[in-house]
TrEMBL record, chain A:
Species this protein is from: Sesamum angolense
Species lineage: Eukaryota, Viridiplantae, Streptophyta, Embryophyta, Tracheophyta
Name under which the protein is recorded: Phospholipid-transporting ATPase
Membrane topology: Multi-pass membrane protein
GO cellular component, one term: plasma membrane
Localization of this protein: Membrane
Record-linked PANTHER family: PHOSPHOLIPID-TRANSPORTING ATPASE, PROBABLE PHOSPHOLIPID-TRANSPORTING ATPASE
TrEMBL record, chain B:
Protein's organism: Sesamum angolense
CC per GO annotation: endoplasmic reticulum; Golgi apparatus; plasma membrane
Protein name: ALA-interacting subunit
Lineage: superkingdom: Eukaryota
Subcellular location as annotated: Membrane
């Protein structure tokens, strides 16, 4: 069955379905085209089907090979090196390395060059690997196959990269276009085809493209045998929405427009195949031209780190200056004093007593190199390495693995990991991000009766929470019986009709009481139909035929089944048909109609066939409807109509559309159900459902014929007034309608979206919704994902006029400013009290608002609102908002969207599901932020602790620049002996485990307030480093001088002091990191203690080298320091003293000023979280940020609302009970008294503010 | 245990650049068990000056005249066109005071062997390398070396070549290998050759015994004690605070969200 339908469908003329909107005549564009072509910028000539002409000049164009790599084999070395030495620190080390081969050298050249080579080499290796991956990706794309015409009507598969301009290609359904193609013909007779441009602009709706009439005939392979044409068009440019050109075919010239251009990176949909000729290839395509290389972003922490590095540079210059002055003074006086130096024989001018000034200057330069250890050379490379490893951990996190797609969260660039821990605002796209772009039929209201009373999540949660609250409250009441509670509950449920079933439904789930609601219970057994989430036994399973007034019901279902542009695609198991349509909404309607017994099974050019259920006979029968006209849906009309005639020749106009539009066009006798429908509509909207109203009317034949001629005339008009005429024509017939009812479809949210938004809001994140959808949809989704709720004040920012011209810009600005001012006043008047605010901004208003002079006003209002929703936003505007908000607020902004390859906002992370954002931010972001901050602080510490000892020693050598340590010790310091533990800190550290992070969103605030990398902390660590360096140096000096250090009476020389001091430094910095780590794994233990062991191992091997290599280190460990107990005692003493300040600090901090994570660590460690679960849960509740956004906030609001109602109800109930005669008789019974007492207690409880606070949290 | 077993005698007198033989008397306060180490101490002498430290050639000390690159030894690398062995400022300024010790009238035996590290003698100063062209320049530095004795046996030189880390330093001169009793009077005859007057440095002579912790050093003990005391003090303070104002483990009142007044 699917075979024949499939073929029929192929040749269906889709364009007949469209009256206007998407395809306009292109005549008005031809005039400028003629003028432009041949001018500079419009010089491209393409010989179709003669691609060999484009292999050589003058029309040589690049082939279709696309490269996104940064380097190639030749450019890699110079460019990567250049990139490396753009970093100030690396440049400094390069200069130091150059100096080290001059007489100014402070160290052995190798000891300066080796770490630099190591560090730069590692960074370059990383670059090379990343580029290699890009290369592999490119190769993947370039080797995709496409059918190319090779002559004689023969098409063969070729790889994309071998494609040339002028080639004829055949692209099949669901394939990507290999380049920018000129559409010649498609599988549809009228040359129409559908493309999905999601990769280009993130829009998921299909766009129609149509070939020129002249090339329609080229619809089979053989037709290309002799086809030849020339295209003259614009030069390659990045503009996606313009195209100017001419097609010269058989001496005729035809103008081309963007609707003939199929862009690379877009996909062919709903069309079997198309033929096209390559116009732009490879690097010339618009998609590639448009893709800007993602700018390398640097996180806030890293930018601050640069300033810390500058601070260290400052310190270094200062001590170098001191050294230089000291050296000059010593040199000046040294000639007569220090005869043993023979300064007058000085040849290299470093110690020239005659010219101490220039000697001092040279010493300054040398000191800059000498004290280079203050600058952490390996910091950059370590951070890069750590971030790559962090990104690996993020990528491999199983909790962020989507089983449906088999994808995990992917960190595309690793340099923003810690920025995830500091996000303060989220700008989110809607379609595909929050929603899955899939519609589900949820509820309908027919003849004023609402069907499909599925409990919404919010209602359910509110009733559950209420129950818990009451239960909690009951515990505090002694000796109250359980019947009391159930009465409370029943009373509550009668208080509000809409919540009745929810509470009952909940009861049923928990207690399985007799008062079960059969409607809900039985529906749970239904097997799910995709796109249909409707449960109501009154309609399902053909039950609707037993309802009264079936005729309107049938009409309702007919609107559903006939008023659309969809087509049946295939039949799957169980006789169900699948559909394809312009919008997923229509598919949902068609599926629903099918479920109700109105199966739309066939569409020809002018007929539609339904398989209808006949209510009188209960049998299904096929009915054919003639499609007379179709009045297309568009954004200004907000409605769609079809005019059909049935087999009896009766003509109907079936109309669906937005509520206000339809209600305006109802006949007076068609408003029977209006009141009820309006009520239902507002209920549906509150639940975040997208609503649509159905209406119809019967059209008399003369009336129709009259109108039809008007409409035909309007359609035939060419020119600007065409649209207006059509509009008027449709206006003529779409009136006097009869209301049938309304439907509600759910724009299905992705799994876990409301919960995720809830958690993020609780973590103190602000969420803005930016969407290309219309305002109503955006607001609906706002409701659905709990960004909006009913008691929020919605402030709408919009323009009254449609498109302002330039002269009006000023007025428009005034208008917007005026609105903003009034909103500002409104918000300040409320001042945190009362209802929360939501700002809803229209795209056009947004454009004005973001202009330079209005911007500040707009943003200050927007920042004060709890939630901001921007609708009809273009991708460019999204980027603009992101940038503006970032600049204005100085906050870290995260933008999330689904534009897979959004040219404007190149993504740094990709998530298969929105809900993973929670874990990505609150767990990984938080961790990475803490890790990187700790890591940088540690680097600063360790380099100060080490580098300053060199300075202190220099003071004792008459500022001569002598270094205390052997050159190789120094090389090893940053490269091997202290670099690995810090990597384990940066990769594995966790202050609290992931589930605690998720349970206590308040911990995320640490990142937002940047308290782990504040200047206070930085200065603290610098001081800690200074203290450690002083401890290490002075203790060693005083312990070892001036007397002997071993039993043999031996004295310590430079090498001994150097070795012992260095040992102390290694111990100190490695033990320091052990104190910093709160989450030990065997890896951290291995690396920390391994580093210390490694030092001894290195020392042992070095001191065993022959003396010509090891020089004074020869046998220093085995013969000299090792056997001396003083060496080991000094190490211990120094270690203890140098760590004492930090240890005291953390003890004081933890004991007297504990941070949240300290307390939580303690609770977790001592097991209170398990022993005292209520406390653990209570603290989780409390840790949530006060927010008006999110699911929980909404539940809270609902509870507040319910309680108020309950209160009111109780009051009236109590009065009525006490006044009733029944009560008076009951008074004689003891139980009744108890009950009333309980009620009074209960009521008093609400009056007690303290308890109320406790209950409401 | 460390004891005040040593005595310092200032020998800072006499006239500039005139070799003087002088005597000095040391009173031994307590019993000193052999071996007693004899050190000379120089103050304000920058043996750790960079120009000084690098002015040597370790390869020459190993290979003698076979090693030609003496650039590091400048200006004491060549004299009259011939290389100097050992070259460099360190060797050139070798300390050249000598001491002899008398108890009563008996000259005490001072062992001047094995005062340098064994590894230095065996591996860094070669047995086949003899001093050559040493102290032959226009400027006279310190001691002269016997060209017939190989460098590996020139222990004074080896000790001197171990440059000291600080400008005040001691060097081992020799060992007295007999016990000195309390109240012994030791007469020291010394040849005051070495010029310390120019830099107003002082020379000292130190007699010291050595324990397993090395020579006498007050600092280590004081440091250990003061660190220990400060630890105990800090611990005591913390304990007091804890007793007076305890913070229970995992106390929830300290959580930041519990500081804020509850909103309700």
């Amino acid at each position: 069955m699917s075979g024949p339908t499939g073929r029929r469908k192929q040749k269906l003329k889709w364009s007949k379905l469209y009256t206007f909107s998407c395809l306009r005549p292109t005549t008005d564009e031809s005039a400028p085209t003629e003028r432009l072509l041949g001018q500079p910028g419009f010089s491209r000539v393409v010989f179709c089907n003669e691609s060999q002409l484009h292999k050589s000049k003058p029309h040589k164009y690049p082939n279709n090979y696309v490269s996104t790599t940064k380097y190639n084999l030749i450019t890699f070395l110079p460019r990567a090196l250049f990139e490396q030495f753009r970093r100030v620190a690396n440049l400094y080390f390069l200069l130091a390395a150059i100096l080290s081969v001059t007489p100014l050298a402070a160290f052995n050249p190798v000891s300066v060059i080796a770490p630099l080579v190591f560090v730069v080499g590692l960074s370059m290796l990383k670059e090379a690997i990343e580029d290699w991956h890009r290369f592999l990706q490119d190769r993947n794309v370039n080797s995709r196959r496409v059918k190319v015409h090779v002559g004689n009507g023969l098409f063969v598969q070729k790889s994309w990269e071998s494609l040339l301009v002028g080639d004829i290609v055949k692209v099949s359904k669901n394939e990507y276009f290999p380049g920018d193609l000129l559409l010649l013909s498609s599988s549809y007779e009228d040359g129409l085809c559908y493309v999905e441009t999601m990769n280009l602009d993130g829009e998921t709706n299909l766009k129609a493209k149509r070939s020129l009439e002249t090339t329609l005939g080229l619809d089979e392979d053989a037709a290309f045998c002799k086809f030849k044409a020339t295209v003259r068009c614009e030069d390659p440019n990045p503009s996606l929405y313009t195209f100017v050109g001419n097609l010269d075919l058989e001496k005729e010239s035809y103008p081309l427009s963007p609707s003939q251009l199929l862009l690379r990176d877009s996909k062919l949909r709903n069309t079997e195949f198309v033929y096209g000729v390559v116009i732009f290839s490879g690097p010339d395509t618009k998609a590639i031209r448009n893709s800007t290389r993602s700018p390398s972003k640097r996180s806030r922490v890293e930018r601050k780190m640069d300033r810390v590095i500058y601070l260290l540079f400052g310190m270094m210059v200062l001590i170098s200056l001191i050294s230089a002055v000291g050296s000059a003074l010593y040199t000046k006086s040294g000639n007569s004093k220090m005869w043993y130096l023979r300064l007058h024989d000085d040849t290299d001018n470093l110690f020239n007593p005659e010219d101490p000034m220039s000697s001092g200057l040279l010493q300054f330069v040398r000191a800059l190199v000498l004290y280079g250890y203050l600058i952490p050379i390996s910091l950059y490379v370590s951070i890069e390495l750590v971030k790559v490893l962090q990104a690996m951990l993020i990528n491999k996190d199983l909790a962020m693995y989507d089983e449906a797609t088999g994808k995990t969260v992917e960190a595309r660039t690793s340099n923003l990991n810690e920025e995830l821990g500091q996000v303060e605002m989220i700008l989110s796209d809607k379609t595909g991000t929050l929603t899955c772009n899939q519609m589900e039929f949820r509820k309908c209201s027919i003849e004023g009766i609402s069907y499909g009373g599925e409990v919404t999540e919010v209602d359910l949660a509110a009733s559950r929470r209420m129950n818990i609250d009451v239960e909690r409250y009951r515990y505090s009441l002694d000796g109250s019986d359980s019947t009391g509670r159930s009465i409370e509950m029943f009373d509550l449920s009668t208080a509000d009709g809409s919540t009745e079933k929810d509470v009952l439904g909940f009861h049923q789930g928990s207690e399985d009481t007799k008062t079960g609601n059969s409607r809900i219970s039985s529906s749970q057994k239904e097997t799910a139909v995709k796109g249909f989430n409707f449960r109501d036994n009154r309609l399902m399973d053909k039950m609707w035929i037993y309802r009264s007034n079936v005729s309107d019901m049938i009409m309702f279902f007919r609107v559903m089944a006939l008023c659309h542009t969809g087509i049946p695609v295939e039949e799957n198991r169980g006789n169900k048909i699948m559909y394809e349509a312009e919008s997923p909404e229509e598919v949902a309607f068609l599926i629903a109609a099918q479920e109700f017994g109105f199966k739309f099974c066939q569409r020809t050019q002018s007929t539609m066939v339904l398989q209808e259920l006949d209510p009188s006979s209960g049998l299904e029968m096929k009915r054919e409807y003639k499609l007379l006209n179709l009045l297309e849906f568009n954004s200004s009309r907000k409605r769609m109509s079809v005019i059909v005639s049935n087999e009896d020749g009766e003509i109907f106009l079936l109309c669906k559309g937005a509520d206000d539009v339809i209600f305006d066009r109802l006949a007076d006798n068609g408003r029977t159900y209006q009141q009820a429908t309006v009520m239902h509509l507002s209920m549906y909207a509150e639940d975040g459902l997208r609503t649509m109203v159905f209406a119809y009317k019967k059209v008399g034949l003369p009336e129709y014929e009259n109108w039809s001629s008007v409409f035909r005339k309007a359609k035939a008009t060419i020119g600007p007034e065409r649209e207006e005429l059509l509009e008027n024509a449709s206006e003529m017939i779409e009136k006097e309608l009869l209301l049938l009812g309304a439907v509600a479809v759910e724009d299905k949210l992705q799994k876990g979206v409301p919960e995720c938004i809830d958690k993020l809001a609780q973590a103190g994140l602000k969420i803005w919704l930016l969407t290309g959808d219309k305002k109503e949809t955006a607001v609906n989704i706002g409701f659905a994902c709990s960004l909006l709720r009913h008691d929020m004040k919605q402030l709408h920012l919009c323009l009254r006029k449609e498109s302002p011209s330039n002269q009006q810009m000023k007025d428009v600005k005034e208008e917007i400013l005026c609105q903003l001012q009034s909103y500002n006043q409104l918000i300040t008047a409320e001042d945190g009290e009362g209802d929360p605010f939501a700002l809803v901004v229209d795209g056009k208003a947004l454009e004005v608002s973001l202009s330079y002079d209005v911007r500040n006003q707009f943003l200050s209002v927007a920042m004060k609102c709890d939630v901001v929703i921007c609708c009809r936003v273009s991708p460019k505007q999204k980027a603009l908002i992101t940038r503006t908000v970032k600049e204005h607020s100085g906050k870290t902004v995260l933008a999330i969207g689904d534009g897979a390859n959004d040219a404007v906002m190149a993504s740094d992370f990709s998530l298969p599901q929105f809900r993973f954002l929670e874990r990505l931010l609150i767990v990984h972001g938080h961790w990475c932020y803490k890790r990187i901050s700790k890591m940088i602080l540690y680097f600063v510490y360790k380099n100060i602790a080490f580098g300053l000892t060199l300075f202190y020693y220099n003071i004792f050598t008459g500022f001569s620049g002598q270094d205390l340590y052997d050159d190789w010790y120094m090389v090893m310091f940053n490269v091997l002996l202290t670099s690995l533990p810090v990597i384990s800190l940066g990769v594995l550290e966790q202050n609290v485990s992931s589930d605690v992070c998720l349970k206590f969103p308040a911990l995320y605030q640490e990142g937002q307030r940047n308290i782990c990398f504040s200047w206070k902390r930085i200065i603290g660590w610098i001081l800690n480093g200074i203290l450690a360096s002083i401890a290490v140096f002075t203790i060693n000096i005083y312990v070892l001088f001036p007397s002997a250090f071993d039993k043999e009476g031996n004295l310590a020389d430079i090498e001994h002091i150097g070795t012992i001091t260095y040992t102390c430094v290694i111990w100190t910095v490695n033990c320091q990191i052990a104190l910093m780590i709160s989450h030990f794994t065997w890896i951290s233990h291995f690396l920390i203690w391994g580093s210390i062991l490694c030092w001894y191992f290195f020392l042992y091997s070095y001191n065993n080298l022959p003396p010509s290599y090891s020089k004074n280190v020869f046998h220093i460990f085995t013969e000299q320091t090792g056997p001396a107990p003083l060496y080991w005692i000094a190490t211990l003493l120094v270690l203890v003293v140098s760590l004492l300040p930090y240890f005291t600090h953390i003890v004081i901090r933890r004991s007297f000023f504990p941070m949240d994570d300290h307390i939580i660590q303690e609770m977790k460690y001592s097991g209170t979280d398990v022993r005292d679960t209520p406390m653990w849960l209570r603290e989780q509740e409390k840790s949530k940020q006060l927010t008006q956004v999110g699911y929980s906030a909404r539940v809270d609001a609902k509870i507040r609302h319910l309680k108020e109602q309950l209160h009111r109800k109780r009051k009236s109930f109590y009065l009525s009970v006490t006044n009733s005669p029944v009560y008076k008789t009951m008074m004689r019974r003891d139980t009744a008294e108890e009950r009333v007492n309980l009620m009074i207690n209960f009521r008093n409880a609400w009056k007690n503010p303290k308890r109320k606070a406790g209950l409401l949290v | 245990m460390l004891m005040d077993f040593w005595k310092v005698t200032d020998i800072n007198h006499g006239m500039i650049l005139i070799t003087l033989i002088c005597t000095s008397v040391i009173h031994i306060p307590k019993l000193m068990k052999a071996p007693i180490f004899i050190y000379y101490q120089l103050d304000n002498y920058y043996q750790n000056h960079r120009r000084y430290v690098k002015s040597r050639s370790d390869r020459q000390l190993l290979h003698g005249l076979k090693h030609h690159d003496l650039s590091s030894c400048a200006p004491e690398d060549f004299n009259h066109g011939l290389p100097v062995v050992p070259c460099g400022l360190i060797a050139w300024s070798l300390f050249n005071d000598t001491y002899s010790f008398f108890r009563g009238i008996d000259e005490m035996k001072v062992n001047r062997k094995n005062i340098a590290w064994k590894s230095d003698r065996d591996h860094k100063f070669d047995k086949q390398v003899y001093p050559f062209n040493f102290q032959n320049g226009t400027l006279s530095g310190g001691a002269h070396l016997d060209p017939k004795i190989p460098l590996s046996d020139q222990e004074d030189l080896i000790v001197w070549m171990r440059t000291s880390a600080l400008p005040t330093f001691r060097k081992l001169y020799g060992r007295i290998e007999e016990d000195l009793d309390a109240d012994d009077i030791i007469t020291v005859k010394l040849l005051n050759n070495y010029n310390t007057y120019s830099f107003t440095g002082s020379k000292k002579l130190v007699l010291s015994t050595s324990s397993w912790l090395g020579g006498h050093n007050n600092f280590l003990g004081m440091a250990c004690i003061s660190v220990g005391v400060s630890f105990i003090f800090v611990a005591f303070v913390f304990m007091l605070i804890h007793v007076k104002n305890p913070r229970p483990y995992g106390d929830t009142t300290n959580l930041s969200w519990n500081w804020k007044p509850m909103s309700g």
